[in-house]
Specification:
Number of helices: 6
CATH topology of the largest domain: Immunoglobulin-like
Number of strands: 9
Helix content: 25-40%
Largest sheet: 6 strands, antiparallel
Strand content: 35-45%
CATH architecture of the largest domain: Sandwich
Order of helices and strands: EEEHHEEEHEEEHHH
CATH class of the largest domain: Mainly Beta
Distance between the termini: 69 Å
Radius of gyration: 23 Å
Number of domains: 2
């Protein structure tokens, strides 16, 4: 029965995708020499291991929404679920390196996006947890099926600049927010009534009015 191990070797931004995407190079190896793996239906859950890195004061302040007041003893930095991905690994013997594309959202309602956006530099500790089905050939019994053990995982550090450069490429000098329909209608009415030509002008006008009244 095959015993597969997994290692994430590198990551790069996909430049010509329809939406932001990172491509991880995944090395898969069999513990038994000569194993003939017909294919693997692979599932992967990616966790952000937030406690495994240090944060600058400005980063801690931007992470307040996720982890609480950085000056409070009750603040607890915890791991975050980033995403799930699936992958069909083609036939190989002994080992192989495959591309594992991971679509990336820029929706600021998602905790992972808030986390990535809060960071200035450094690396993001990730934990890849694998599961799935292995189809392999046995000399005596032909095609066989086994499961990937739930204990199979791999750690990798994602450089923050890779994520930043990817988002700058797909959304240059911009960010996305989702609004409730009623709030959008109110903003749209404000924009029309004040003769503002863009959404940026509408938001800036509102912020200027609020900031004037701040102490």
């Amino acid at each position: 029965m095959p015993d597969l191990s997994f290692q994430v070797e590198s990551v790069e931004s996909v430049r010509c995708a329809a939406a932001p995407m990172l491509n991880f190079k995944l090395h898969i190896a069999s513990a038994i020499a000569g194993d003939d793996i017909a294919n693997v239906i692979l599932q992967c859950q990616i966790q952000i291991e937030a406690p495994r890195r240090r944060y600058q004061p400005a980063e801690q302040e931007r992470l307040r929404e996720l982890f609480g007041d950085p000056n409070s003893a009750s603040q607890k930095i915890h791991s975050l679920l980033w995403t799930h991905v699936g992958l069909l690994v083609p036939r190989f013997q002994n080992d192989c390196v495959v591309d594992m594309p991971v679509p990336c959202s820029y929706d600021f309602n998602a905790a992972a996006v808030k986390f990535f956006y809060a960071l200035e530099d450094g690396k993001v500790p990730l934990l890849f947890q694998f599961s799935g089905t292995i189809f392999y050939r046995d000399e005596n019994t032909g095609l066989q099926i086994s499961r990937i053990a739930w204990s199979k995982e791999a750690q990798f550090s994602l450089p923050v600049p890779v994520w930043q450069e990817m988002m700058d490429h797909y959304y240059p000098n911009s960010a996305w927010l989702r609004l409730d329909r009623n709030q959008f209608d109110r903003l749209y009415q404000y924009k029309r009534q004040h003769g503002l030509s863009s959404w940026e002008q509408a938001v800036e006008s509102l912020l200027d009015g609020v900031e004037e009244n701040l102490p």
